[in-house]
Amino acid sequence: MGRGAYALARVAVVVRAPAGWLWWPGLLAAGIGALVPGLTGRTAGLVAGAALFVGAALVVFMARRGRYAALARDASRAGKSVILQDRSVTLRIWRRAHRWWPLLAFLAAVASSGVLPAAGGLLMAGAALGLWGKARWLGRWEREHEALLWVRTESARRGGAAGKEVRGYVLTGTAAGDARPGGARAGDARSGGARAGATRGRAGGTRAGR
């Protein structure tokens, strides 16, 4: 990076990064658990699992929304020296830093089926749904304000995009980066990289323009 440059990651991408690693293993664990009678029986396990699914989705979706909104409201415009991290790089960094806990969560969910069949897996899937919902909520803010929200990568490393170390967000235009509002993968028209004032930089990102 150049002198004084620093990297930014999309807030919505950081939020939704764990979702896929909770959703599919969670559904698999629930499917495996449904085959196990368990101490309480399949019916009780599925009913409890459905309640945990809905509860986890709501709790995760609502968690820290006030802080996200406050950081977005006070966000400042990005300067020319920032490097916009690609979506795939953000996801890869998260996967490397947390590669063990989704596996441990999956194993715990399967083991819990001995008591409540499928409940642990549905809990994981509900948490994933809540993360996707929060990313979509952020995407709605980005569309309404015609701007994308970014966070410094070193600040989001611990505690996520709304952790204690995050002092503020940075704004760019909607054409910056390679992900749509809400953090979803961009279509072919934009997946090639920078557009409208952003140029390709090193370290898997784009350099923001004015």
List keywords for this structure.
7 strands; 8 helices; 210 residues; elongated; single chain; alpha/beta
What is the strand and helix layout of this fold?
Elements: E1 6-10, H1 11-16, H2 19-34, H3 42-62, H4 65-73, E2 76-77, E3 82-85, H5 87-97, H6 101-112, H7 119-145, E4 148-152, H8 153-156, E5 170-172, E6 198-201, E7 205-208
Parallel strand pairs: 1-3, 2-5
Antiparallel strand pairs: 1-4, 3-7, 4-5, 6-7
Helix pairs in contact: 2-6, 2-7, 3-7, 6-7
Tell me what the structure shows.
The chain has 210 residues and is an alpha/beta fold. It has helices at residues 11-16, 19-34, 42-62, 65-73, 87-97, 101-112, 119-145, 153-156, and strands at 6-10, 76-77, 82-85, 148-152, 170-172, 198-201, 205-208. It has a seven-stranded mixed beta sheet. It starts with 5 loop residues before the first strand and ends with a strand. Strand 6 (198-201) and strand 7 form a beta hairpin.
Task: Give the number of helices.
Answer: 8
SSE topology string: EHHHHEEHHHEHEEE
Morphology = elongated
**Whole-number mean pLDDT:** 87
Q: What fraction of the residues are assigned to beta strands by DSSP?
A: 5-15%
Please give the alpha-carbon distance between the first and last residues.
18 Å
Derived from helix and strand composition plus strand pairing, the structural class reads: alpha/beta
Secondary structure tally: strands: 7
How much helix is in the residues? 40-55%
What are the segments in which pLDDT stays under 50 over at least 5 consecutive residues?
188-203
What strand line-up does the widest sheet have?
2-5-4-1-3-7-6
* Largest sheet properties: 7 strands, mixed
Please state the CA-atom Rg, rounded to the nearest Å.
19 Å
